[in-house]
Design goal:
The chain is mainly α. About 65% of the residues lie in helices and about 5% in strands. It contains 11 helices and 3 strands, in the order αβααββαααααααα. The chain has a 3-stranded antiparallel sheet with strand order 1-3-2. Keywords: DNA-binding, Transcription, Transcription regulation.
């Protein structure tokens, strides 16, 4: 088997198209998924030679893939031919939460205003996948679908610049979204958000997304929600919107 002409399928590990550029992207996707799913723990080494052997490719696409993941904020570079999976500090998580709390309100409000029939159908499909995974107890699949839900809402928002900004932060925010434990609760809140978007109820969706972000705490410090200028009164806003 040639390690320079075959490509890696990111999900299954099978080798497919001979396109070199695609190979680098697929290697990046495979490593990205492993990081986001917790298969590769924070702080663990990413050695080019070992990754190339594991994925059945040459070291060149692995090197290119690691550069992409460094740019995305999931990998920390080290000298020579290895890197480590990024260890997010409490300060990193706080920064992500602050940025996300601002972006999500705008995103969901725009989605409620601008949603299309096709876009709503795509969001429904993602939500159904999340609900089914939550019911079956497949936590990993439910978390991935939950992150997909937020990304699909960004598509519904119909704002190219917002989509571009989201793309820059996509991997880090997706990592953040995959940290929650309450898969049933998150799925139920996503159902409520979907209903508000479908009804074009901008006021309700605004209150629901604030409460949603406040309910899923990603910091050890339980006062984070109360101190956040956007999330501090989220519960009261939900009650008034209802």
């Amino acid at each position: 088997m040639s390690d320079r002409t075959d490509s890696l399928d990111a999900r299954s590990g099978s080798l497919t198209s001979p396109d070199f550029e695609s190979e680098s992207a697929r290697v990046a996707a495979a490593i990205r998924d492993q990081i986001l799913d917790g298969v590769r723990a924070p702080g663990s080494k990413l050695v080019e030679r070992d990754l190339a052997d594991e994925l059945g490719v040459s070291r060149v696409p692995v090197r290119d893939a690691l550069k992409v993941l460094v740019t995305e904020g999931l990998v920390t570079p080290r000298p020579r031919t290895w890197a480590v999976v990024r260890e997010f500090t409490p300060a990193d998580v706080a920064d992500l939460n602050e940025v996300r709390s601002a972006l999500e309100v705008l995103t969901f409000r725009l989605a409620a205003n601008r949603r299309t029939r096709d876009g709503l159908s795509a969001l429904r499909a993602v939500l159904d996948a999340e609900l089914a995974a939550a019911r079956s107890g497949d936590a990993a699949l439910a978390r991935r679908a939950a992150a997909d839900f937020h990304e699909q809402v960004t598509m519904l928002a119909g704002n190219d610049l917002l989509h571009e900004i989201g793309g820059m932060l996509k991997s880090r925010i997706r990592w953040l979204l995959l940290q929650h434990e309450d898969i049933d609760g998150v799925a139920e809140e996503h159902q409520a958000l979907y209903d508000a978007i479908a009804a074009r109820d901008v006021a309700k969706v605004s209150a629901l997304i604030l409460a949603h972000m406040g309910n899923i705490r990603y910091l050890d410090d339980p006062t984070w929600r109360d101190d956040d200028p956007l999330l501090g009164g989220a519960s009261e806003q939900v009650e008034s919107a209802g």
